[in-house]
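ESCALATION

Customer reports they have been waiting on this structure for their group meeting. Please prioritize. Original submission:
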Amino acid sequence: MPRFYYSKDARVERSLRHSVRDGVSYSMMAGAGETYLSAYALFLKASTAQISLLTALPSLLGSLAQVLSAWLAGFAPRRKTLILSGVLIQALTWLPMIWLPYFFPQHAVPIVITCVALYYAAGNFATPAWNSLMGDLVPERKRGRYFAKRTQLMSIMTFLSLVGAGLLLHFLELARETRLGFMIAFSLAASARLYSAYHLARMHEPLRAPIPMALPQFSGLWQRLRVSDFARFTLFLAMMNLAVAIASPFFTVYMLRDLHFTYLEYTASTGISVLAQFLTLNMWGRFGDIFGHRRVLALTGSLIPILPALWLVSPEFWYILGVQTLGGLCWAGFSLSAGNFLYDVMPPDKRATYAAIHNVLSNSAIFCGALLGGYLSTVIPTEIIVFGYTMHWTSGLWGVILISTLARATVALTFLRRIREVREVRPVSAGGLMIRVIRFNALAELVIDLLGARRRRRRTRLLDSNQAAGPG
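Update from on-call: job pushed to the front of the queue and completed.
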């Protein structure tokens, strides 16, 4: 693993490398396992309403788990205790998910939904303490580049493990052994998360006295919220998550059930999005550090509303690949800038509490959005009569996708102009940033990064050899 040189403290530098390995291991779990949870539920004959519950219930329990974690942080002397507890439970939830549906086939889908809810709850339980720890370890002025580099490595591992699991499922489906494919993929996911826990355990934790979770005082609360950058940003992200969640659980259903994609085509359409994120994350990280994460958030947040509508233009596989590529580009910038902007607006001494509040609202919004999408999928008619003409939906999910498009656009128009930058950054217009994005050459940038890593390794070897030779 190359050195990042983000800190002169050797313990911090080692911890940042362990964090990268943790992230890469987590991504293997996400690519080989998490990506295929909806596909697994469909394989077990889940209905559209059950697929929406598969997204909604984990979000609700995840919110409660974050509140519990933030409350316990006020008593736990070490944040790593909370982090490792959540991570280990998350790894172990794969085992009943693999085996129980076949011991109790009549209850297969409810068992999977319960296990997935526990899986996400355990991950969310670890999140506030992890956010607090990483906020202490990563220097403020280098967060964009560090997290971009870390997320870039995570993206390529997600892509590789996603493709590997997809090919496994494809060939075992041809051999009529799809169940075995899911068992192998999910077993690899569990092993990867256990390896992730090993690296988390080796990270250095700066000493900090436990800070009890303090609920805001209600007197003057509305006035404080009106001027709070954190409140505006959290409300924006919660509402955007709600709008996105109306349709997001059903794209897997749309591809596998309505468009009749094979597992190989589903893997390709999902993997191309991850690959687009990998190729552009470093660009978004650098732009965020230079021009501000708010500017990146505004640009990508303006493009996100059109993404679901593009799915309705054509059902052709190659067209869907193009839409997924654009989606990967936009979501890479939006997710990275949102995560870094959150660090900017949270008080350092209350990160765990603020992160819990932020994530509770976001997860609650996902819960509401997924339930709303599930309800709409059952009541929206498959045809509409307009001025005497009957219009048929290609899929019953088209109406849900259109409503999600309108909701995303409403949120973007309402909130993006109200979010302001909180750091001193180089000014740039939206058009200027767009021109820089268009001019960006992902492959050339990747080559430059690899050459830079090679130079850093050569410099490290030279320094080590000089130190070994001693004073001349």
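Sent to customer with the following note: The two ends are 31 Å apart (CA to CA).
Escalation resolved.
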